[in-house]
Amino acid sequence: MSAPPSDKGQSITSRDELVQFIEEGCKPEADWRIGTEHEKFVYTVDDCRPVTYFGEKGIAEIFKRMERFGWQPIMEGDNAIAMTDGSASISLEPGGQFELSGAPLKDVFETCDEVQTHLAQCREVTEPMGVHMMGLGLNPKWRHEDIPMMPKGRYKIMTAYMPKVGTMGLDMMYRTCTAQVNLDFGSEADMVKKFRVSLALQPVATALFANSPFKDGKPNGFLSYRSHIWTDTDNDRCGILPFVFEEGMGYERYVDYILDVPMYFVYRDGQYLDASGKSFRDFLEGKLDILPGELPTTSDWSDHLSTAFPEVRLKRFLEMRGADGGPWKGLCALPALWVGLLYDSEALDQAWHLIKDWTHEDHESLRRDVPVKALHTNFQGRALKDLALQVVEIAEGGLKRRNRTNGAGQDESHFLEVLRARAENGLSPADYLLEDFEKRWHGEINSVFVDCAY
Fold first, then answer.
1. Model confidence over 300-350: pLDDT tens digits?
2. Cα 139 to Cα 215: distance, rounded to the nearest angstrom
3. CB contact at 8 A, 440 and 447
4. Torsion angle, CA of 410/412/417/423, rounded to 10 degrees?
5. Does residue 272 contact residue 157 with C-beta atoms inside 8 Å?
6. Do the beta carbons of residue 295 and residue 11 sit within 8 Å?
7. Dist. CA 152–CA 82, nearest whole Å
8. pLDDT in tens, 21-68
């Protein structure tokens, strides 16, 4: 999640200004960029426990040591709760998950180099401390009660609110890690088409990147338990968003949806004010009871946009949110998949043709079944792995037509080789972890902290 805003922004007086705020994200194709975000669990090597914020092996010490690479701390009170380096940032999830929010970059080669550099920096800092990081969709051993909360005001508010609206919200906050890709759009029509395609195909990405088969030290019956958690986190702000596929979808329709998402907080004078369950519509009319007579700012609206959690989220760009955290190669393959599908017009047309006749029941069945079975899911009478292979091939074509190459003459499509192999085999990372748990680890869950460390 984002760091506290550095600027309140301008006051907002009307719904039209909320729409305009999103619309201003439109960019010409030449300016389209790729932003990659990924979260990592941080744990002590000797006992595989989640790190605290304070202490010689804590997050605060990691932040301090990251300054050697040029990262600058962002403070909340007396505590560094994020770091920034140009247009990239590092932030903390509630349970200390360490997140890189990458800079907007021109191609997958650049974003993959960024990931590699970041992980190398993390290893250099943490290994002398006896701390490691790993990519997995769900903490495989520790309950959320066992995980220290990071000292960020918004998390205290969310921790109190989540049990009121779902059964798994605290698991989402404290026990999950995801990888995410942020992509641009050129017009309202382009946004709508990309939104529809990516939202429909998000379960395919979930299946290809499924990597959360353990809970409380043993198999949990799912291949992507992280994805399952979102089915009962907070249905006011999660889910499939059927209106995206309906006539009339556009900026205004999405704004109306966000206005109906209950608020979490308002940030004022270095403090998070508890606005949980309150209405942004009231705020827009100066009727928010915790700030009577005060109107929201663009910063408040940006914050509120970040508190909706559909599988694809619209801000001034589109966020692809369906993948579990995972191994290094996946962190390069994920942006390659979505760039190949959405940044080439022919690929986007092919993907749209693939999903345009899907029904609401089709979307619901994928959301229900993919967390359990991943690529083994049966969809429309065939194995999902076959659909996944078709999607990967469309993305490969899109990347080849983009024709962005490295010094060795490779185009971006080579990053999809790992996904092609998963689709052809019908096996996600979770399938391999379960096999290791039974055969190599002999039921000892601590082995995952060794084998999955970055």
1. 999 999 999 999 999 999 999 999 999 988 999 999 999 999 999 999 999
2. 7
3. yes
4. -150
5. yes
6. yes
7. 10
8. 999 999 999 999 999 999 999 999 999 999 999 999 999 999 999 999
